[in-house]
Amino acid sequence: MTELNIKMTKEIELLRLVTVGSVDDGKSTLIGRLLVDTKGAFEDQLLAVRKKKGQEQHIASASEIDLAMLTDGLSAEREQGITIDVAYRYFATPKRKFIMADCPGHEQYTRNMVTGASTASAAIILIDARNGVMPQTKRHTHILGLLGIPHLIVAVNKMDLVGFDQATFEKIREDMSAYCAKQGIKDLICLPMSALDGDMVAVRGDNMGWYEGETLLETLENLSVLDAVDQKPFRFPVQLVNRPQTADLPDYRGFMGTIVSGTVRVGDEVVAVPSGNTSTVKEIVTFDGNLEEAFAPQSVTLTLNDEIDVSRGDMLTHVGEKAKDSKELRANVCWIGNEPLSERKKYLLKHNTNTVKAMVTQIDFKTDIHTLEHEEDAAELAMNEIGRISFKLLKPLHYDTYAENRATGSFILIDTFTNNTVGAGMIV
C-alpha cells in the first residue's frame, strides 16, 4: 500500500458532522447524549452539568445530567436555554472518530449554521415529532442541499412525547422525502429516536420495535465518507510567498498554502494563474521534511525550478487542468447580512486566498424555501433568503463550479463599509 493510500485510509476514520433543525428540536441534547453514551465527556464536565447537586462525587446515571448544557457553553445560552453560537464537540467509537457541530435553530442565527455546515461530510436534521417539518427545517435542508453535503440523516426526535407512534414518524418521513426529492437530494436516511431517553441513539431501546433500521450511532459509523478530493484537478491557492533571505538560502522562494484538491509530485509541470507562466515543481517542503508527493488537504511550501511571477491570491494548477477564468459569474447565494442585497450594490468577494471587487448585476431569482419554486422578479434578498445572483468582477476570477469542486467553487461576500461577512456563495 502506498503512502497516499495509507493516508487516505486514516482520513476515512474521521467524520465531520453538523446537526441542524428548528428551535427546541433537541440538537444540544442529542450531542450531549452521544457524548455520554460514547464516553466522550469527562467526569468533571458531567458533574458540572448534573441536575441535582448533592454530596455524591460521581454521576450514577445519564438521567442526572442536563445533556444540553454539555454543548451550550455561553452564559446567554444557559440563561435562555437556546443555542446561539456553533459548538464543536469531539467523540469516538472503536470504528470512527467524529467532529460534530451543534448549530443554532433560530432563524436569526442561520449565518452560524452556514458556517458550521460548510465543512461537514454528513448532516443530522432534527425534527420534533410533535411539530413535524417546520419552515426553519426546510431552510436548513435547502442550504445543506446547496452546500452539497453528501449524506443527510433526518432524525425524528422526541418520539417519547407522541407515544412512540409509528404513523407520526412515517408522515414526517414522507414529507421530508418529498421535499428533498424536489431538490435532487438522493442520500436521505430517516430514523426515529428519543435523545433524552437514548432510544435509537446509541442503543435501540424497547419502545420502537417497529423500526428495523440501524441506530443513529450505527448509521454514523457505517457512512461512506471517502472524499475523492485528492482525485480532483490540482488546486493550490497561494497564501504567502516565503523569502527568508538568509546566507544559506540567498535565492530561496517558496510558495506557501494548502492544497485544496488534487495531488502534486516533484517534477510536475504547473501553471500559475492569472499570469499563465509555467514551471516544474522542484521541492515540496513541510515542517517534517521534504516530500515526493503531497495531496489535499495538506499544507505545504512549493518551490519551482523557474522564477515566475506568483503572488498571494494566485493559484497553481497542473498544465492542461486550468480552472475557469471569467470576470462574470453566477452563484447561489445565502444572504446573511442585516442590509438586503440588491442590484448594483458592490461587495468584496473572497475566494480562497484571493479577494476581488464585485458588483451585483442581476438577481436572477429568489427561492421559496417552502415550495422550492423560483421568484423571477425579486428586487432584493433579505437576511436568510436564498437566490441565484449574477456578478461582474473588477478582475478575472479563476474558479471551478461548486458541483465540480467545493473548495474552489465557494466564496464569501464582504461588506465594503463594515467589513462584515454578508453572504455565502456557491458558483454555478
Task: Give a written overview of the molecule.
The chain is 18% helix and 34% strand. The protein has 428 residues and is α+β, with helices and mostly antiparallel strands. The protein folds into three domains: 3-226, P-loop containing nucleotide triphosphate hydrolases (Rossmann fold), CATH 3.40.50.300; 229-318, Beta Barrel (Elongation Factor Tu (Ef-tu), domain 3), CATH 2.40.30.10; 324-427, Translation factors (Elongation Factor Tu (Ef-tu), domain 3, Beta Barrel). It has a six-stranded mixed sheet, with helices on both faces. Strand 2 and strand 3 (97-102) form a beta hairpin. Helix 5 (110-117) runs parallel beside helix 6 (135-147). The radius of gyration is 24 Å and the shape is globular. The model is unreliable at 4-12, 52-62 and 74-83 (pLDDT under 50). One of its GO terms (biological process) is sulfur compound metabolic process. It holds the Pfam family GTP_EFTU_D2. GO terms for molecular function: ATP binding; GTP binding; GTPase activity; sulfate adenylyltransferase (ATP) activity. Keywords: ATP-binding, GTP-binding, Nucleotide-binding, Nucleotidyltransferase, Transferase.
